[in-house]
Amino acid sequence: MKEPLVSIVIPTFNRPFVLSELLETIAAQNYPNLETLIVNDAGESVDFVRRAFPELNIKVTVQQRNLKQVHARNLGCQQARGEFIMLCDDDDLLTPGHIRRMLEVMAEGADLAYSDAELFNYRVEGNGRIPVSRRLFAYEYDPAEMRKFSTFIPSGCLYRRHIHSVIGGFDPDVYHYWDWDFILRVSALYSVVRLPVASVLYAFSDQGGNLSANRPSGRLYLDRLAAKHGLGHLPSANFATLLDEPYMRQRIAESSVIWDGLPVKSRINNV
């Protein structure tokens, strides 16, 4: 039986060498039925990745204006042909076997599956990243608790493409919190499963411009999210600070850690 087509959607903006590290980890999945949809949000050209990673069936779409990551992600999902969509931020990484682990969960009846992750900080050497610290991000999936603080990391999540035909696309009006909004909308109608394996590496560094690291303008979007879902007042402190709160420590779950801690050596970065 032919393995199902998985559409991997990656928005990107001016991080070609970081993007190439992600693509290296996708290539290492050795999954034969992929389409990799990269949406360049009016940044520098990344067309070179099609030549460098011919095994990934890459399509690059360029937004002529910088419309930001939510619009870029929506465009990629609109182009997807696969039965399943997998989301990836361009600076995050997948561990070996991730795609098949997600598909196994879907085969058991889930509509959306996501894995635990490791948050990693890094330093930059040349065109590559060297991990300098790591932190396990593993929390029980509890729909009620997800209304207080989202522990859903969208990178590496896998879901059935038809979900968009019912709930629509990602909401740019909540911008930083598009992923929280998405999981709340999905979980209201569909089966969501957390896989207790730290299968995704989530870049968390001021050097990388990660949106979760510093959200000075986030209050506006957080208030919009709260109003949309009736969540009441939500704290807007730094993401890492909130993880250290006692109520978050109570939600910590056991998880399998599989990353060897080594940096990704990309064929592009080593040219």
Give a quick rundown of the structure:
This protein is of the alpha/beta class. It contains ten helices and ten strands.
Descriptive overview:
This protein has 271 residues and is an alpha/beta fold. 29% of the residues lie in helices and 24% in strands. The longest helix is centred in the first third of the chain and has 12 residues, at 16-27. 36% of the residues are buried.
Observed structural traits:
single chain; 10 strands; 271 residues; ten-stranded mixed β-sheet; 29% helix; alpha/beta
Q: Structural class, please? A: alpha/beta
Tertiary shape: globular
In round numbers, the mean pLDDT is: 93
Content of β-strand? 15-25%
Question: Mind sketching the topology for me?
Answer:
Elements (H helix, E strand, L loop, with lengths): L5 E7 L3 H12 L6 E7 L7 H5 L5 E5 L6 H11 L4 E4 L5 E2 L3 H10 L4 E14 L2 E10 L5 H4 L11 E3 L2 H5 L10 H10 L4 E12 L14 H12 L9 H5 L2 H4 L6 E2 L14
Parallel strand pairs: 1-2, 1-4, 2-3, 6-9, 9-10
Antiparallel strand pairs: 4-8, 5-9, 6-7, 6-8
